[in-house]
Amino acid sequence: MDMGKAPLVELIGIQKHFGGIRAVEDVSIDLRAGEVVGLLGHNGAGKSCLMRILSGAMVPSGGEIRINGETVAFSDPNDARKAGIETIYQTLALADHLDAPANLFLGRELKTRFGNLDDRAMLKAAREVLARLNPNFKNLGDPVSSLSGGQRQVIAIARAIYFDTKVLIMDEPTAALGPSETAMVAGLIKELRAEGIGIFLVSHDMHDVFELCDRVVVMNKGRLVGSHAIDEVTKDDVLSLIVKGDLPADWSARNLETVPA
Amino acid sequence: MSNATKTGGGFALSAIAPANASLHRLSALLTLFLLVLGFAATSPAFFTVNNGLTILLQTSVVGLLGIGMTMVIVTGGIDLSVGSVLALSGVVSAMAVKAGLPVLPAMSMGILAGAICGAFNGLVITKLRIPPFVATLGMMLIARGIALQLTGAIPISGLGDAFGALGNGALFRMVELRPNGFPNVVFPGVPYPAILLLVVALAAAYLLKKRQIGRHIFATGSNEEAARLSGVRVDRTKLYAYVMSGALAGLAGNVLMSRLVTAQPSEGVMYELDAIAAAVIGGASLSGGVGTISGTMIGAFIIGILRNGLNMAGVSAFIQQIVIGFVVIGAVWIDQIRNRP
């Protein structure tokens, strides 16, 4: 396998323990360029924990992360962002009192020659990227606390795709959105996939998962219990994996089909 | 989220609860003008050049403290130690002068002592994860204790004219000699402390508005977790704010002790409350993420003019305390209304 075909992201034997609690237990997942992988599981199954490890917000207790075949170690979110890994958090992680451009560039502010904040350049860039996502986005100078849920989501998305993104982690990106905004996010995911970005989609929405994902991986009680191409499983299979997560990891698609819904 | 919908509960409260920071600042400015008008009407000595300069002098100390306090409050913290740090810094400067150091390096040592106190606050808060209220309360006692211990609670005097220049000197002071040999002050000049306050205020405003660290101070106070996930070094940002607060308390201490030409280890008790009040009156929110230097300056002048005007009107120091107490409660109350969902 040549370097071009090495997986974009390899999570190998990732572990995360909190005292005696094993939140993530020996999880290995690959993500390829231009692939959308749905990550499913109950609340507390370890999905968020695993994604926080990949986004640098949490340091794993064990295991290895490889990006394009090279081992990396993230000690904070900045390290992950420098490696091209961007995250859209379910909470959106916006600073409510700052405006859209300030949030978009938070931690990566544009500066003038003299090291001052280049607010004009940030406003210009923000206007362009936000217009691409939502042509009606006008109130760029308002604190984001005064914006609608959809607009806030757009800012969080814009922040994740504006910079040289290789891997995108989306944690419940449509949970707070109306139908038209959900359609926008779905369209965006397809667009980004076509651009060769690898996407982890954490979601509870089966419809989204089956519409958008190439593959689903399911976690249960910290363990990986299934990894399947989307066309070899049905919604019932996936639900079964989520609910009866103690099934063996090599449970085949054909066996799953015999499980009553 | 917080100010998108105002549910005033049908009460006229919403009329006096400004919807945003600039409106809050405007109402503070209005209060300031009303105070000036009120005091000018009641006391003829209030509205004079000399009294104006006195107010400038008195306000410069609270103003300097308030600037540092604003940075800390915007990060979502509080610094209760500034009054004690002010005293310790003045004592350190005076002891350095007594040890034979020239005034400028001696005062720098005092300011450095303040910055070290601030760094200690910041490290206790970020590394030991102790709430700012408790950490700086501890420093309030520690710094005061060190100041008293170093001096044996005895003021250090005989510091020389050079030590008094910062607090007592003035720019553009014009004095002419009368034929009888006595000096006649044509213009008393702009006191150095007032100039210092202006310079520091402008620098701090620039820092908060135009520099990355300022943006990060706001982001940290607005949503600490979001700031961290966005790659803001939250701990470093907080440390910066507390060091600035400590250093400015040190600077204020030097201004005050220089004005007295004496280092008083018991000086500055409860100044932290004036500084907090100045910031909150000026629109800073104790829950973080909101605050401006210009607002804090207005707040500092409201407190300065209130104290001065009450003095001029012959109101006793005890009554003054009561009035300022109500003003502080009122200001925080307005802050609460503003943050009500």
Brief overview:
The complex is a heterodimer of chains A (261) and B (341). Helix content of chain A is 33%, strand content 24%.
Helix and strand layout, with pairings?
The complex is a heterodimer of chains A (261) and B (341).
Chain A: E1 9-18, E2 21-31, E3 36-40, H1 47-54, E4 62-67, E5 70-72, H2 77-82, E6 85-88, H3 100-104, H4 119-133, H5 149-162, E7 167-171, H6 179-194, E8 198-202, H7 206-212, E9 215-220, E10 223-229, H8 235-243, H9 253-257
Parallel strand pairs in A: 3-8, 3-9, 6-7, 7-8
Antiparallel strand pairs in A: 1-2, 1-4, 4-5, 9-10
Chain B: H1 13-16, H2 21-42, H3 49-74, H4 82-98, H5 103-127, H6 132-151, H7 161-168, E1 170-171, E2 174-177, E3 183-187, E4 190-191, H8 192-210, H9 212-222, H10 224-229, H11 234-260, H12 271-281, H13 293-312, H14 317-339
Antiparallel strand pairs in B: 1-4, 2-3
Helix pairs in contact in B: 2-13, 3-8, 3-9, 3-11, 3-12, 3-13, 4-5, 4-6, 4-11, 5-6, 5-11, 7-11, 8-9, 9-11, 12-13, 12-14
Structure overview:
The complex is a heterodimer of chains A (261) and B (341). Chain A has helices at residues 47-54, 77-82, 100-104, 119-133, 149-162, 179-194, 206-212, 235-243, 253-257; strands spanning 9-18, 21-31, 36-40, 62-67, 70-72, 85-88, 167-171, 198-202, 215-220, 223-229. With 261 residues, chain A is of the alpha/beta class. Chain A has 2 domains: 1-84 and 166-261, P-loop containing nucleotide triphosphate hydrolases (Rossmann fold, 3-Layer(aba) Sandwich); 85-163, no CATH class. In chain A, strand 7, helix 6 (179-194) and strand 8 form a beta-alpha-beta unit. The longest helix of chain A is centred in the C-terminal third of the chain and has 16 residues, at 179-194. Chain A is globular, with a radius of gyration of 19 Å. The termini of chain A are far apart. Chain B has one domain: ABC transporter involved in vitamin B12 uptake, BtuC (Orthogonal Bundle). Chain B has 14 helices and 4 strands. In chain B, strands 1-4 form a two-stranded antiparallel ribbon. Chain B has a two-stranded antiparallel sheet with strand order 2-3. Chain B is globular, with a radius of gyration of 21 Å. The chains are: A alpha/beta (261), B mainly alpha (341). Chains A and B meet through helix 2 of A and helix 9 and helix 10 of B.
